[in-house]
């Protein structure tokens, strides 16, 4: 439905000429300006209350902008709509960062001392942060957790692993191998979040794994890491939790009692990346 609506948006901008534009900047007419105002209002109404819809339209418009870069008028108008949508997403995201700054600072301070400091781990996984952060925010999912799982599954390399399971090693997907495109990378992040949330849905009566872009607990993060890698469930009907993951090193290595680690795994990597976020983008 959203793609159909966006097609109507594109068609309403005018004829899709494939002729190359000149070096002269496009000078919009009064009609162009009025059309853009109407389109922005329409997009705002369609995406109202949904950061995920805002992201979805932004990314579709971005692809259309690249596709029709040779059409001077269309590219101008798509660029304006693209700027409007990313501005809307960034405004909401900045507000969320400000509101969660004190909490995240406190969370880092509370847990960072348990990380094994002798591990020589470069501050990796911060590349392409804006894309990962945008998708995580749009889905109300902690960005540092998205990055930490990507680190654990594919060391944050920008490539397609040889088994075809993608950057997050989702065995039900076939991403191919070798080079990765931006579109596949973006889709793999969305697939990871969808996959994670579907696991919660399947176990909602047995496991507590509640967290958002702005808030989380150590219990929820541990449950997520263990459930992603499969875990043994134990607890009671009111508050199920994972006492011991099937692969505890996947969750804990490099943190607390797991002192023999040579690299950080999910929990310590999450904390390192959260600390980086708090120091650089908050």
Structure in words:
This protein has 282 residues and is mainly alpha-helical. It has 2 domains: 2-92; 115-280. The chain is 57% helix and 4% strand. It has a two-stranded antiparallel ribbon with strand order 1-2. The protein is elongated, with a radius of gyration of 22 Å. Residues 15-24 have low confidence and may be disordered.
Annotate the secondary structure layout.
Layout: H1 2-12, H2 30-47, H3 51-67, H4 72-111, H5 129-138, H6 143-154, H7 182-202, H8 218-228, E1 231-235, E2 240-245, H9 248-252, H10 266-280
Helix pairs in contact: 2-3, 2-4, 3-4, 3-5, 4-10, 5-6, 5-7, 6-10
Q: H/E order of the elements?
A: HHHHHHHHEEHH
Low-confidence stretches: 15-24
Q: Tell me the count of domains.
A: 2
Biggest sheet descriptor:
2 strands, antiparallel
Major sheet strand order: 1-2
Principal-axis shape: elongated
Total helices: the number is: 10
Q: State which percent range the strand residues make up.
A: under 5%
- Gyration radius (Cα, Å) is 22 Å
How far apart the termini lie comes to 35 Å
Give the integer mean of the pLDDT values: 84
Q: Quick one: how many beta strands?
A: 2
Structural class by SSE content: mainly alpha
Helix content: 55-70%
